[in-house]
Each structure stands twice: as C-alpha cells, then as structure tokens.
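Aggregate trends can hide what the representation actually does to any particular protein. This step matters because it turns folding into a mapping between discrete strings. For completeness, the protein is quoted in full, as a sequence line and a line of structure tokens:
=====
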Amino acid sequence: MVDSGTIFFSKVNERERLIRGILNDVYNALSEKGYNPISQLTGYVMSGDPTYITNHNGARSKITRIERDEIVEELFNVYIKSTAGGKGGN
C-alpha cells in the first residue's frame, strides 16, 4: 500500500474527543464556581436535570449536546482502559 499522506479519522474517535472535551470544560467550570464536579456530574447523569450543571462558561449548554448514556459509556471506557492496562475499548 502506498502512503498517500491522507489521514483518516474515525467518527468514533472524533465523538470520543468531543465528549472528553465537553466533560473537561464542564468539570473546570464547576470547579471554578466552587462546586464539587464529581457530585454535580453524577447528579446530572442520574437525574437528567441540567440545573446540576452551572451556566458558567457555557457548561450547561455544552453538556446537553451529548447524551447521558454517551457520558456513562465514555467514563466506563476511560476507567476500564486505565485499570485494565489499556485493554478496554469499543
């Protein structure tokens, strides 16, 4: 196969990057406002109530761009990869 210099991106990887970026942004916004980010994110994921997430830096708007099940899936994916020596995944 000849290397054409073309880079192919997986839609899954792009979606994972989007979710991770949003979670990082939301975590930082919650921290900046003095909230416990883990507690607030857990409340949001469990209830679906976006008021668990601050409006600071557009965090609430960002978190509602992704489905809660995608958040849980990404969290499990990262957790399993970190505890199973990188053997987790899609």
